[in-house]
Amino acid sequence: MAAAKASSSLSPKALIFMCLLALQFGIQPIVTKKFTSPEIIRSTVIFTQEIVKLLIAMIGITLNTSTKWKDVTSGWSIQSWLRLALLPATIYLIQNLCSLLAYQNLDAITYNVLNQTKTLSAALCCFLLLGKRQSKLQIVALVILLLAALVMEGVLPLELEYYTNYLSNTKTDDSNDTAKFSISSRHLSHGVLPIMLASFLSGLAGAITQKSLQSGEGRNALMFTMELCVASILILLVSFATSEDGKQIQKRGFFDQWTFLTLVPILTNSAGGILVGLVIKYAGTIRKGFALIFGILISGIVQSLFDEDKSLSKEDMSGGVLAALSLWMHASFPYVAAPKTKAKAE
User: Fold this and answer.
1) How many distinct helices (H) and strands (E) make up the chain?
2) What is the pTM of this model?
C-alpha cells in the first residue's frame, strides 16, 4: 500500500515509469509526423489507440503473476465505473476539444506558453481535491519547471540583448502600444480562454485520477486504464453519429490514408497512456508534469541525432538543467505539516 502512494521521495518504480513516460513523450511527435498522414481522420486514430490501450492493459494484468483478475475486479461495479472513470474520460474529451479550438486560433508561442500552466493547475487541483499542500520551495520548483518549458520552447530567449532591446522599444514605442497589445474578442474567446480551460481540466482530471488510484487500497492502475478506455470508446462511438469525422468515415472509410506503419505511433501513444496512469499512481499528477518536460528535452535530443539540419540547442540544454533542478527541489523539500499539539495528540 505504501508503494502505491506517491510520497515526497521518488521510489525506484516511480522513477522508472517517469523515465519511460518522458521517453515516450519525447519520441511521440517524431513518429507521429513520420508515420501518420496529415489527411488521416484523427478520430479513427484515437479510437484505435483506445482499443490497443485496452488490450495492452488486459494483457498486462493477465501476465502479472502478483495480481489476479479476481483481486483486480473485487468490488467493481457499474456505479463505481461511472463515478471513477466516466467523469475523467469526459473531462479529457472536453480538454482535447478546447485544446484543438485554441490551437486553431492562437499562434504557436502563445499556445505553448499558456499550455505549460497545466502543471500549476495540477498542483492547485491536488490541493483542492486531495488536500495536498506544496511547500514554498516546491512552489518555487514548479515556477522553475514552467520557466524550463518556456526556455525549451524558445519563448524565453537566453540572450540578454533581446530583453534590453525589448525594454528600450517599450519606452520609445508608446504610440504603438494600443495597436500592439490590442486583443480581439475572438482571440480571447476562441483562443486564450479555451487553452486556459484545457490546462485547468488537465490538472482536474489528473487530480481525480490520482484520487481514484491512491485512495484507500488504491485502484489497480491497469484496471483503471481499462475503465477509462471503455468510457472513451463509448463517447467516441456516440460522437461518430453526429461529428464531422463520423461523416468522413462514412464517406471515405475508417482506414482511409492508413498504412501498416500507422500502427507505430498508435502503439507508442497507447503505451504512453498506460504510463500516465502508472506515473500518477506511483509519483502523482504533479510529478507527471516533470516527466513531460523532460520529454521535450528528449525530443530535441532525438531530432538532433536523426536530422542533420537540427542540433541540440543551448535552449534545450538550459531547459533540461532547469527541469532537473526543479525536480530535485520538488522531491527534496516537501511540505511538512505543523506538528500537532500535545493536547490534541492525547
Assistant:
1) 18, 0
2) 0.78
